[in-house]
Specification:
Keywords: DNA-binding, Repressor, Transcription, Transcription regulation. Pfam families: LacI, Peripla_BP_3. The protein is α/β, with parallel strands linked by helices. The chain folds into 3 domains: 54 residues, 434 Repressor (Amino-terminal Domain) (Orthogonal Bundle), CATH 1.10.260; 131 residues, Response regulator (Rossmann fold, 3-Layer(aba) Sandwich); 143 residues, Rossmann fold (3-Layer(aba) Sandwich). The protein is 42% helix and 18% strand. It contains 12 helices and 14 strands.
Length: 347
């Protein structure tokens, strides 16, 4: 009996099959199947022979084929735009870890924001009989939700609400209001919101809470926008906010990447100091926010907690497909660091 394992048989250009295991163990093909099926009837002696043969050959059960026969592939699609950027990269990592832990097989679909791109993702996921879909960004077309419903496929949306789908979101408006109150408590009333020209539901909610809370308390709110909500977008927003005679003394950024770009622009292109002249608040609390280079005050959005809630909704939906859509809102906390001065009553 050789100790060399070969899950993939180079001679036949195929993976080691159950039939090869059966021949080596001197049993039937069905016996091999039963040996790898929990609760199936097979004698202890025969199971031992089969497992020894499988170990020697490097055989692995074809979970994909088994799942398709059972009409449950265990594949879970993660539909996301630019999964490598900022908070999304940490959320994708947390989701894949949580899904693998529950026995699912995550598939990341890197797509865009248009209906055509999301529809292409839809066809891929339904074509491979994905068990469920989790959308991290973009707006799923109504046909996506309708087709998921007709096929009994759970659809979880993160960061926005969608009629007919379960969703998990952060209290974005509440965070915006908290950012405004923090600045106001510090006597700052020339405020700004740095974001992107593309208005997502998340951006709209954060800006509304911030602007409404600030303006009803007598503050002014300028707008600085970049093309995307990333580092370059933060640089572009800073050029608009600090390139003229009127400048803010406090900026709430839609996310940490925008805040990083804005902070670096201020440091390298103006004579202003942070936080003495300008206070900056970000959103997400990605690891780089705590680096000495930024020391950013920001709202923490815990990717692991978000992933846990998404997986919990998936399991509840599978257990009770007819249950009404769930809309979960997670609280966030402001992490104080050196990019802001403390309010007078907290110094």
């Amino acid at each position: 009996m050789t100790s060399k394992k070969k899950t993939f048989d180079k001679e036949s250009n195929q993976y080691v099959s159950a039939l090869q295991v059966a021949k080596r163990a001197g049993v039937s093909r069905s016996a091999v199947s039963r040996a790898f099926t929990p609760g199936a009837s097979v004698s202890a002696k025969k199971r031992e022979k089969i497992l020894e043969a499988a170990e020697a050959l490097g055989y692995q059960v074809n979970d994909l084929a088994r799942g398709l026969l059972a009409r449950k592939s265990r594949l879970v699609g993660l539909v996301v735009t630019n999964p490598e950027l900022g908070y999304r990269s940490h959320l994708v990592a947390a989701l894949t870890k949580a899904l693998i832990h529950r026995g699912s097989v995550p598939i990341v679909i890197n797509t865009g924001r248009t209906e055509e791109e999301l529809t292409a993702a839809q066809k891929t996921l339904f074509g491979y009989r994905a068990e469920a879909t989790i959308i991290l960004s973009g707006s799923p077309p109504s046909s996506f939700v309708e087709l998921a419903s007709r096929n009994g496929q759970p659809l979880i949306v993160l960061g926005r609400s969608e009629t007919g789908a379960d969703d998990v979101n952060i209290d974005n408006e509440g965070a915006g209001r908290a950012a405004a109150r923090f600045f106001l408590d510090n006597g700052l009333k020339n405020l700004a919101f740095a974001a992107t020209v593309v208005r997502t539901p998340t951006t709209i909610e954060r800006e509304f809470g911030f602007r409404d809370e600030a303006e009803k308390n007598g503050a002014t709110v300028l707008s600085g926008e970049g093309t995307n909500s990333d580092y370059q977008g933060g640089q572009a927003a800073a050029r608009k906010l600090f390139g003229g005679s009127t400048r803010p003394d406090a900026v709430f950024c839609v996310n940490d990447l925008v805040a990083f770009g804005l902070i670096d622009y201020i440091r390298h292109n103006t004579t202003l100091s942070i936080p003495e002249d300008v206070s900056v608040i970000g959103f997400d609390d990605i690891p780089e926010a705590s680096w000495d280079a930024y020391n950013l005050t920001t709202f923490r959005q815990d990717a692991a907690i978000m992933a846990q809630h998404a997986v919990s909704l998936l399991e509840k939906r599978e257990a009770d497909p007819a249950r009404p859509p769930a809309h979960e809102r997670l609280a966030t906390s402001l992490i104080l660091r050196g990019s802001t001065r403390l309010p007078a009553n907290r110094s």
